[in-house]
Amino acid sequence: MAVAPPVTGQPMATQWMAAPQAPPNCPPGLEYLALVDQLLVHQQTELLEAFIGFETNNKYDIKNSMGQRVYLAAEDNDCCSRNVCGASRPFDIKILDNNQREVMHLSRPLRCSTCWCPCFLQRVEVQAPPGEVIGYVKQGWSICKPKFWIQNAAGEDILRIDGPCFTCSICGDVEFDVSSHDGSSPVGRISKQWSGLIKEAFTDADNFGVTFPIDLDVRVKATTLAATFLIDFMFFEKKGNEEKDAPGMLS
């Protein structure tokens, strides 16, 4: 009996990371984070958005260093907010595991980001599981360079994130350094990775790399991941294929 040759040229289905055993006192769904020290965040390309500029809900693949999918992230927003408020829009992002179970929920209210409004800067609430707050991402006041704080559920500063003065990416990565709350010890990095000239010019589908110590608390890892989405919206979400290229936090 003849055996049919394997079909080539078809895309391989993305493999999911195997579910590990949950460590003690770990919120359900965050056990995956206990085994990783690096995450790759790939925004999916939306053809409608690329061709006619109609803003759609963002979707992201979150993978480990071996390319295995850890989570899927999907923005849940209405058409009016997306296309009127643009990158400044409030959002809810649902983060799902391989069973389509929502394990994290990120919520960003409508707030300012410019240094001219220091009392009403950006903040993202992180819930895991949904309904239980585990931390916040809070924008710090700054003129020259972006600054953020990773906070626990009580609003206490755990880590800080410092970005560059210019966040436009010209054939290179844009790096946001993660350090201890007093800035004395490096902890990790959030890098907006260069995706190639065509993709950078005509879409806002961005790639990010997130690194942190493998023994970092999973709640802090999850909140650092949430900071990646806020950074994407604030600095790399395009309107009419134009990025925010102003220096510092003046605009």
Q: Can you give me a brief rundown of this structure?
A:
The chain has 251 residues and is α+β, with helices and mostly antiparallel strands.
Residue ranges: pLDDT <50 for 5 or more in a row?
3-9
**Number of continuous helical runs:** 4
Query: How many E-type strands?
Result: 12
**DSSP helix fraction:** 10-25%
Please trace the helix and strand order, writing H or E for each element.
Answer: EHEEHEEEEEEEEHEH
Mean pLDDT, as a whole number? 83
Fraction in beta strands: 25-35%
Rg from Cα: 18 Å
Largest sheet: 12 strands, antiparallel, barrel
Structural class: alpha+beta
Name the overall outline: globular
Distance between the termini: 69 Å
Give a description of the structure.
The protein has about 250 residues and is α+β, with helices and mostly antiparallel strands. It has four helices and twelve strands, in the order βαββαββββββββαβα. The protein has a twelve-stranded antiparallel barrel with strand order 1-2-3-4-5-6-7-8-9-10-11-12. A hairpin with a 4-residue loop joins strand 8 and strand 9. The longest helix is centred in the last third of the chain and has 19 residues.
Task: Pick out its properties.
alpha+beta, 251 residues, single chain, 12-stranded antiparallel beta barrel, disordered N terminus, 12 strands, 15% helix
Write the layout of secondary structure elements.
Elements: E1 38-43, H1 47-52, E2 59-63, E3 69-75, H2 79-85, E4 91-96, E5 102-108, E6 123-127, E7 133-139, E8 147-152, E9 157-162, E10 174-180, E11 186-193, H3 197-202, E12 207-211, H4 218-236
Antiparallel strand pairs: 1-2, 1-12, 2-3, 3-4, 4-5, 5-6, 6-7, 7-8, 8-9, 9-10, 10-11, 11-12
